[in-house]
């Protein structure tokens, strides 16, 4: 089967997976590609990794359009995704209303599962928040860092730690079996990121890429986007 190739931030993986059958029925094409830290996906596009469609943060996609790697007229917003806390499904949910609450929760965790703290949107934010809370050094040995949020959440689900916690994009939490979305980050620590799709300038299947963008952003898919963790 011919496929549309995607380079995407991990935040969109669950939504794309949920649309694969509808896309196949409409175009006859399958969907293939890579999902991971947005910085790494952008660098893959820059290194000429074959791609028809790119799904990254709004700011990063705009930069790739300036670099003439994404067709500007094709760009469309999918929705906003918050960075949130996760626990294993069997564990009590945690609620954090203030920075002090978040500091206490992170200090009491014996393992903190996060995505790449240098190349991923959520991971960079976690590193910043730990500095902001003044506990980066204190919890450094408990950080469990993985290439992307999806991997971090799968590892959290399998964790044998006594009191583990995770922090990544809400969409990645929702898409992972054995994990529960535990709540938003408190005011002053929150992060909401707009994710955007665009057709790669060197796309082999630009028409089908546009069709997939239409599916991802269509008004009739709003409920599906919300279930996957996208807002707005």
Number of helices: 10
Gyration radius over CA: 18 Å
End-to-end C-alpha gap: 34 Å
Number of strands: 9
* Uncertain stretches of 5 or more adjacent residues: none
Helix-and-strand structural type: alpha/beta
- Mean pLDDT across the residues is 96
Largest beta sheet, briefly?
A: 9 strands, mixed
Features:
10 helices; 232 residues; elongated; nine-stranded mixed β-sheet; alpha/beta; single chain
Q: How do the helices and strands line up, and which of them pair or pack?
A:
Layout: E1 3-9, H1 13-27, E2 30-36, H2 38-46, E3 53-57, H3 58-66, E4 76-88, H4 99-108, E5 111-115, H5 121-133, H6 136-139, E6 143-146, H7 149-157, E7 164-169, H8 170-174, E8 179-184, E9 192-199, H9 206-217, H10 222-228
Parallel strand pairs: 1-2, 1-3, 5-6, 5-7
Antiparallel strand pairs: 3-9, 4-7, 4-8, 4-9
Q: Describe it for me?
A:
The protein has 232 residues and is an alpha/beta fold. Helix content is 40%, strand content 26%. Strands 1, 2, 3, 4, 5, 6, 7, 8 and 9 form a nine-stranded mixed beta sheet that branches. The longest helix is centred in the first third of the chain and has 15 residues, at 13-27.
Write a brief caption for the model:
With 232 residues, this protein is an alpha/beta fold.
């Amino acid at each position: 089967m011919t496929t549309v190739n995607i380079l995407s931030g991990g935040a969109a993986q669950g939504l794309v997976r949920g649309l694969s059958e509808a896309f196949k029925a409409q175009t006859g094409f399958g969907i293939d590609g890579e999902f991971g830290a947005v910085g790494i996906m952008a660098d893959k596009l820059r290194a000429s990794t074959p791609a028809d469609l790119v799904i990254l943060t709004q700011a990063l996609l705009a930069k790739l359009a300036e670099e003439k790697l994404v067709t500007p007229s094709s760009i469309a917003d999918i929705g906003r995704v918050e960075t949130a806390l996760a626990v294993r499904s069997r564990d009590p949910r945690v609620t954090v209303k203030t920075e002090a609450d978040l500091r206490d929760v992170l200090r009491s965790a014996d393992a903190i599962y996060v995505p790449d703290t240098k190349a991923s949107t959520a991971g960079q934010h976690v590193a910043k928040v730990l500095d902001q809370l003044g506990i980066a050094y204190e919890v450094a040995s408990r950080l469990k860092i993985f290439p992307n949020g999806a991997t971090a959440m799968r590892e959290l689900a399998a964790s044998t730690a006594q009191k583990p916690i995770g922090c990544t994009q809400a969409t990645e939490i929702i898409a992972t079996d054995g994990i529960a979305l535990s709540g938003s980050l408190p005011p002053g620590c929150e992060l909401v990121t707009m994710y955007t799709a665009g057709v790669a300038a060197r796309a082999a299947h630009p028409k089908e890429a546009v069709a997939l963008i239409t599916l991802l952003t269509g008004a009739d898919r709003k409920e599906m986007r919300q279930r996957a963790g996208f807002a707005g």
